């Protein structure tokens, strides 16, 4: 986890791996801005001629750790040294292009490299600074993640490099719809822009809602939707060096999340948009902005369904943390800004206000009853998931960026 990997300067290494004698062909570099330059540590995407089922790379790779976490197979546990390591690959099923490891000590990293070299033909590329378009800056007490180079390529490709910057990606109270009477724009170009912007969401949670909204109209985009996309690009121009800062935290582990929802923000189907954000010791580790699958009849109901979705992810984080630390799972605190929804979550009795809600959404009641999740009220002004459910005005957006851990990394000095 974040607090562990920051115990040493040499915490993350990247290595190129050739997968033995398996036949591997490398596909040509794509023209997308996400294609890394030739001087980076990231290899191009591979094309495997053999099926993953018959490929022995994962089996050989898995033998390096003693135990793998049940909740996440890329997390290995070294029983002898009582350490945890995170192993990632560009091809998760084959592990043969670029592998990255993060763990607690330099000694474990060196041991990992030696083990890998006995199984694969491997070259050590040193401390990780670039991975799949994400720039990584490792400092003594924090790790910074951003996609500034990728963002510049997006602006250049879509001829917005010299555009005027704006301070918010979507005008507050913007109401998008299918616009059946509107003038269509080039759908192929629109989808290309959206595809590029969606990849930015790995380090830019403040873009999750506007990009998600624009993504709903890729079938027949019009000038209305194109105008929103251009504003997102203009906002990107003014925040090109923004990214996430992960600060070294205290030894005690704290996991908490925020859940929020609008009401019937989708004008075509009248469905609501859920937002959730989870933190590990004040560092944002996961977020989501997504249209709900069912129409909610009230804000209470919309918040109730959003919280249930967040509860599922909270349980996964809870189990993973327990496996990594060996400690008994602790309750995850979930902050919600709707008191009526909280009352529904804490009341195990079905009544008139909730009996029509799909059974699966009552899962959160069981989690609360068992003590796995603790639901707490938070004022709307402090609801960190608010930016994931609606377009915010400039001042509030800036506040939410700070709460999410988004910083201007160009001017952010340690």
UniProtKB/TrEMBL annotation:
Organism per entry: Zingiber officinale
Cross-referenced PANTHER family: GAG-POL POLYPROTEIN, GAG-POL-RELATED RETROTRANSPOSON
Annotated stretches, region: Disordered: 16-55
Protein name, UniProt field: Reverse transcriptase Ty1/copia-type domain-containing protein
Ranges of Low complexity composition bias in the record: 25-47
Taxonomic lineage of the native organism: Eukaryota, Viridiplantae, Streptophyta, Embryophyta, Tracheophyta
A Pfam family: RVT_2
Domain Reverse transcriptase Ty1/copia-type: 106-171
């Amino acid at each position: 986890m974040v607090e562990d990997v920051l115990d040493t300067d040499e915490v993350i290494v990247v290595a190129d791996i050739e997968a033995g004698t398996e036949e591997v062909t490398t596909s040509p570099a794509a023209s997308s801005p996400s294609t890394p330059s030739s001087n980076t540590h990231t290899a191009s995407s591979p094309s495997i001629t053999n099926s993953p089922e018959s490929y022995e790379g994962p089996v050989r790779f898995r033998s390096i750790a003693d135990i793998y976490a049940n909740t996440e197979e890329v997390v290995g546990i070294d029983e002898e040294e009582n350490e945890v390591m995170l192993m990632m690959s560009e091809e998760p099923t084959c592990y043969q292009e670029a592998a990255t490891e993060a763990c607690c000590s330099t000694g474990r990293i060196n041991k990992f490299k030696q083990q890998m070299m006995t199984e694969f033909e491997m070259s050590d590329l040193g401390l990780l600074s670039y991975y799949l378009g994400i720039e990584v800056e490792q400092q003594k007490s924090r790790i910074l993640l951003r996609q500034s180079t990728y963002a510049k390529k997006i602006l250049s490709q879509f001829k917005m490099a010299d555009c005027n910057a704006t301070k918010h990606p979507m005008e507050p109270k913007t109401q998008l719809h299918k616009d059946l009477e509107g003038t269509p724009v080039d759908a192929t170009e629109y989808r290309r822009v959206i595809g590029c912007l969606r990849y930015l969401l790995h380090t830019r949670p403040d873009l999750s809602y506007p990009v998600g909204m624009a993504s709903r109209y890729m079938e027949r985009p019009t000038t209305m939707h194109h105008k929103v996309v251009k504003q997102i690009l203009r906002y990107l121009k003014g925040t090109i060096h923004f990214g996430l800062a992960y600060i070294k935290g205290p030894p005690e582990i704290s996991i908490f999340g925020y859940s929020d929802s609008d009401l019937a923000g989708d004008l075509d189907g009248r469905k609501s948009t859920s937002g959730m954000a989870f933190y590990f010791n004040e560092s944002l580790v996961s977020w989501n902005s997504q249209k709900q699958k069912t129409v909610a009849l009230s804000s209470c109901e919309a918040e109730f369904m959003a919280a249930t979705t967040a509860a599922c992810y909270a349980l996964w984080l809870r189990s993973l943390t327990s496996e990594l630390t060996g400690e008994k799972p602790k309750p995850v605190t979930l902050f919600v800004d709707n008191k009526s929804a909280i009352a529904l979550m804490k009341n195990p009795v079905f009544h008139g206000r909730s009996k029509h809600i799909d059974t699966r959404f009552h899962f959160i009641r069981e989690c609360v009853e068992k003590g796995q999740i603790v639901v707490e009220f938070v004022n709307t002004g402090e609801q960190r998931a608010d930016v994931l459910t609606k377009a915010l005005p400039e001042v509030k957006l800036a506040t939410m960026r700070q709460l999410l851990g988004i910083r201007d990394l160009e001017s952010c000095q340690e």
